[in-house]
Amino acid sequence: TVMQPLLLLTLPNLIAAWVSLSMVRARIGIRRTMARLHQDLQELGSYRLVKRLGGGGMGEVWEAKHALLARPAAIKIIRGELLNEQ
């Protein structure tokens, strides 16, 4: 019967700790997913996008490096919704 008050005092702390750990694990998972997505967005075919040079109504221009070639390149990425308009 002495254990019941002790359990009632510690149970909220244990629940709070469990919720906190769950939130930290979820946040770590989200960060890892975002890092993978960011890496995937930085690659376009054989090119690795280095830096955004500019953008406008049609799309964006990026400095890029080819996986095999040793020279820099510029890649223009046109917004997808513009390709469907006629």
Helices and strands, with pairings:
Elements: H1 3-41, E1 43-44, E2 47-55, E3 59-66, E4 72-78, H2 80-83
Antiparallel strand pairs: 1-2, 2-3, 3-4
What does this structure look like?
The protein has 86 residues and is α+β, with helices and mostly antiparallel strands. The chain is 50% helix and 30% strand. It is built from 2 helices and 4 strands; from the N terminus they run αββββα. The protein has helices at residues 3-41, 80-83; strands at residues 43-44, 47-55, 59-66, 72-78. It has a 4-stranded antiparallel β-sheet. It is elongated and about 75 Å long. The termini are far apart. The model has no long low-confidence stretch (mean pLDDT 82).
Q: Classify the beta-strand content into a percent band.
A: 25-35%
Low-confidence stretches: none
Count every beta strand, where a strand is a DSSP E run of 2 or more residues.
4
The 3D shape can be described as elongated
Helical stretch tally: 2
Distinctive features:
86 residues, alpha+beta, 2 helices, 4 strands, 50% helix, elongated
State the gist of this model.
The protein is of the alpha+beta class. The protein has helices spanning 3-41, 80-83; strands at residues 43-44, 47-55, 59-66, 72-78.
